[in-house]
Write a structure and sequence with these properties.
Layout (H helix, E strand, L loop, with lengths): L4 H11 L5 H4 L6 H7 L1 H6 L4 H9 L6 H9 L3 E3 L8 H4 L8 E5 L9 E5 L6 H16 L3 E4 L5 H11 L4 E4 L13 H9 L1 E5 L11 H11 L3 E4 L8 H10 L3 E4 L10 H8 L3 E2 L3 H7 L3 H7 L30 H5 L5 H10 L12 H9 L5 E2 H8 L3 H13 L3 E3 L4 E4 L1
Parallel strand pairs: 3-4, 3-7, 4-5, 5-6, 7-8, 8-9
Antiparallel strand pairs: 1-2, 2-6, 10-12, 11-12
Helix pairs in contact: 1-5, 8-9, 8-14, 11-12, 18-20
């Protein structure tokens, strides 16, 4: 397989990142066999005009120095015929023909892998949520994948390492490029506590398409992608679209509907993404009820798995939640008691956790140590259900409330 490296690097360079190599290699066991088949065989595989021109002009021997450089600098090159090449990538049409890895390349085939991504300028709530979700996943032996960008990506990597786990950072440039010097220390940390990977050769520069191409690898390596915080529009959608094409699960943390930081997140949920409020929700979705029951955070082990959620969202299906007609709303006649409850709930609440939002304070005032259903909170508060859920999540983050079954919460 080592002898084949120069052929894989030749073909990778000729076709470029993101090319549909599965079709190009159809009928050939590897890049070496394709190369030896000759120009007529290449043309029959219908590569792009540019790729075909490169294949004729370039030679595999041109890449021997790259192999030598990587060997001297402890950069492991993974190609599709390597036993440690990630099998999930091979499921895609445009898998990388070479992965340059610093760190533990053997972890890339780990079954329990989740990508965690989000805003480059996350709010405190988003950061705290990511830290809790990642820590919980790591406790259950999950590998965390992200893109090494500022903001939520960095939070994901650091949280995984802090929790004693491993993480994979997928770069959009070559090793030694020096891009984003602010995160150079983080990249070194990841290389020592996981793997730092890229499909680009050493010192390859950042290009206009390198990060969108990078995103397909982040999603393909994972069972599911957890989006913690995304505006609308957001670069996070690019990864979500790759995940959809690759049939990966898409999890989204709901947020305040009045916050622009969560406009994209909430839209993805209305389009069919899976809403989650904790790492346990993801574990339950993957059938790990035993791990959740040991945590003591969820009291009903299999309840989440009984919820049938379609993870495939699309813009065509964006009207899952239609507004009720004015006639239907007019048929709801609130009694005087409920109106007074709503008026009272709008007042400032005493003894609330410091720093919580107005909606969270309203919800906190309604709840008690007894189990309270989300629908009851919405009815008594006059708040939209999604606002109630966002407020409950905020109270969870502040340690003031906890979930006690599907749609049920209590104060701690």
């Amino acid at each position: 397989m080592a002898d084949n490296l120069i052929y894989w690097l030749w073909l990778q360079d000729c076709v470029g990142a993101g090319a549909r190599v599965k079709a190009l290699l159809e009928g050939y066991k590897d890049a070496r066999e394709l190369y030896l088949a000759g120009e007529n065989a290449w043309k029959a595989q219908k590569p792009s005009h540019k790729a075909y021109g490169n294949m004729r002009l370039k030679s595999p021997e041109d890449y021997a120095k790259t192999v030598e450089f990587c060997s001297e600098n402890k950069i492991y090159i993974l190609c599709p015929d390597d036993e440690y090449y990630p099998q999930r990538l091979l499921e895609t049409e445009n898998y990388p023909l070479a992965l340059y890895v610093r760190g533990d390349y053997k972890i890339l085939n780990k079954e329990k892998t989740v990508a965690v991504i989000g805003s480059r300028t996350p709010c405190v709530y988003g950061q705290r949520s990511a830290e809790k979700i990642v820590s919980r996943l790591v406790e259950s032996d999950y590998l965390i994948v992200s893109g090494g960008a500022l903001g939520m990506d960095s939070v994901a990597h650091k949280s995984a390492i802090t929790a004693g786990g491993k993480t994979v950072l997928v770069m959009g440039c070559g090793h030694g490029n020096g891009y984003l010097p602010e995160n150079s220390a983080l990249r070194k940390l990841v290389a020592n506590n996981g793997a730092l990977i890229t499909e680009y050769p050493p010192r390859h520069p950042v290009t206009q398409n390198s990060f969108p191409m990078r995103n397909r690898i982040i999603s393909a390596l994972s069972k599911g992608v957890a989006i913690i915080e995304a505006a609308d529009p957001s670069g996070t959608f690019n990864t979500a679209n790759h995940a959809l094409e690759q049939s990966r699960d898409i999890f989204v943390l709901p947020g305040d509907i009045e916050s622009g930081n969560f406009a994209g997140s909430n839209r993805l949920i209305t389009e069919g993404a899976i809403p989650v409020f904790s790492g346990d929700d993801i574990l339950l979705y993957y059938g790990e009820a035993e791990a959740v029951s040991k945590s003591g955070q969820h009291k009903t082990g299999d309840a989440f798995r009984e919820i049938n959620v379609d993870s495939e969202f699309s813009k065509k299906n964006s009207k899952h939640y239609k507004k009720k007609t004015k006639k239907a709303c007019a048929d709801i006649d609130e009694n005087e008691t409920e109106k007074k409850e709503k008026e009272n709930n709008e007042k400032t609440v005493k003894n609330c956790p410091e720093g919580i939002s107005k909606n969270a304070a309203i919800v906190y005032n309604i709840m008690s140590a007894d189990i309270t259903a989300v629908d009851d909170i919405a009815r008594k508060s006059g708040l939209d259900v999604r606002k109630v859920l966002a407020a409950l999540t905020e109270l969870e983050m502040f340690g003031a409330a906890e979930i006690d079954g599907p749609g049920k919460y209590r104060l701690k």
